Amino acid sequence: MALLLLLYLVLVAQRAVLFVLSGEPVAIALGIALGVLPVLGAWALLRELLFGLRSQQLADRLAAEGALPVDDLPKRASGRPERDAADAEFPRYRTAVEQTPEDWRAWFRLGLAYDASGDRRRARQAIRQAITLERRPVLPG
Q: Which terminus of the chain is more solvent-facing, meaning fewer CB atoms within 10 Å of its CB: N or C?
């Protein structure tokens, strides 16, 4: 999908250049407006790819440490966890973050719990927080 989006962005950028080179005032204005789309799209694509890479690195570290939560929740036919079971497990992860708010591992596990509960927006926020905390230099205390 990322490659298809990149191809689309290149084609839109090419079309924008052609509009600008046409010399017609309306086409130039359209070309400039159309030129913004590839820039925004490339920025969003890069941001999502970096998020995926960094979150996978954290997941790999937790797995190597044996600290990933065990995925033993009952599943629906789609493979997603049953919401009630996921919601029942959720307070454990929220409490861990409340007790150690500077621990990226707790935030990452909270993100996984949000995802299991079906709250993708909060899952991404929690995992972004984990990435931020993990990347922050450790200060001597």
A: C
Q: What is the pLDDT at residue 71?
A: 84
What Å distances lie between residue 20 and 10, 36, 39, 96, 121, CA to CA?
A: 15, 13, 16, 55, 39
First to last CA, the chain: 45
Angstrom distance (rounded) from CA 137 to CA 104: 12
- The whole-number mean pLDDT for each consecutive block of 10 residues of the chain, a chain of 141 residues, reads 91 95 95 93 93 97 93 88 89 96 96 93 97 83 56
pLDDT at 139: 63
107 burial via Cβ count (<10 Å: 0-12, 13-18, 19+): buried
1-9 long-range contacts, CB within 8 A, separation 24+: 2/45, 2/48, 2/49, 5/41, 5/45, 6/42, 6/45, 8/41, 9/37, 9/38, 9/41, 9/42, 9/45
User: What amino acid occupies position 64?
Assistant: A
How far is residue 2's CA from residue 48's CA, in Å, rounded to a whole number?
10
Please provide residue 75's backbone torsions phi and psi, each rounded to the nearest 5 degrees: -110, 150
